[in-house]
């Protein structure tokens, strides 16, 4: 990982600038992937040809690049990567300044979108914003959303909410309007200062954009219109905020309200992001969430009683060594029973026994099982049929366990990698 945009811009120029089209750019500390899926689904429901780029993947590399509701096929992925590799080989770069993996993947997404004739693209920033490879979008054609700001990657982005917000909002063009999601007061005050300093305008969820839930579903109200009776397959109240941000930024792209409400309802109902508050039915049920920092773990902890009302679940947990593990455990402790710690395949993962010891110091009952699949088996056996299991702490742990969870109960598996299902048919209808 090497910050900077010169390589990405040179690579895209060599490819013929495939990135120039209407765009949604989503930045923030947490919730970006879910928000990106909601925005792409909303745009597709209105007949737009949509490309979606998210990271990291849980199911496989091509999960990151979605066109009209379907992850690109292995052949399409290979074709796009091959074009990027050929173009990168023509660049005059120093031997120690080669195109990075994330830059290549980002360029491949643009190539795939161009091949497929997408007229709008939704991109999730990888890290930060200012120097992220996704920060090459034409500002006059780009709507920006900031999901939230928390103290994450402080060694790279800054040690305060304001410094981090400045790095993320650097993706905004001059006098751009940004849709801002719900966040803690200290973060929102920092964001407001950055927005004012940049001369941007902001539409805030909780002010200009409101979201709530009634007996007939979720509703979102913007300055343009109200969107009632929305049924979310994506679970947890935190997803209402993500949806509100997504609909706000969708209106910015459409330059007005979302017209086809029935199509929007179908799209929202079908939208899921792999490994983000994803429930797999079964006995016991398994809830998967990649909560990998304190803010994300707090959101998961708030959602657990709502999603799993049968009582405190068991948790299968792995975290990386560069995270604020104590704060994550503090958020998780009130809502789970036994924790089965394990070690994901990521080289920075904390060893299972070391993590178990930290759990115990945080007041959690914990046992350690080094191998992720064996840890899952242990948790499932102890949960029986009366309790549930939560797999969390790292998207890399979800990547390790996803195949096992799906094989265990394919009928109860609710993930939908083609998050914008039937989008092509909707486009044809329009």
Name its key features:
430 residues; alpha/beta; UDP-N-acetylmuramoyl-L-alanine:D-glutamate ligase; Protein-Tyrosine Phosphatase, Chain A; 2 domains; 8-stranded mixed sheet; 6-stranded mixed sheet; 15 helices
CATH architecture of the largest domain: 3-Layer(aba) Sandwich
How many helix segments?
A: 15
Helical residues, percent = 40-55%
Number of domains: 2
Shape: globular
Rg for CA atoms: 21 Å
- Return the CATH topology of the largest domain: UDP-N-acetylmuramoyl-L-alanine:D-glutamate ligase
- Strand elements, count: 17
What is the overall pLDDT average? 89
Q: What is the CATH superfamily classification of the largest domain?
A: Mur-like, catalytic domain
How far apart lie the N and C ends?
42 Å
Secondary-structure-based class equals alpha/beta
Side by side, the strands of the main sheet go 4-3-2-5-1-6-7-8
Look at the structure and give the CATH class of the largest domain: Alpha Beta
Beta content comes to 15-25%
Q: Which consecutive residue ranges, at least 5 long each, have pLDDT under 50?
A: 413-430
**Major sheet description:** 8 strands, mixed
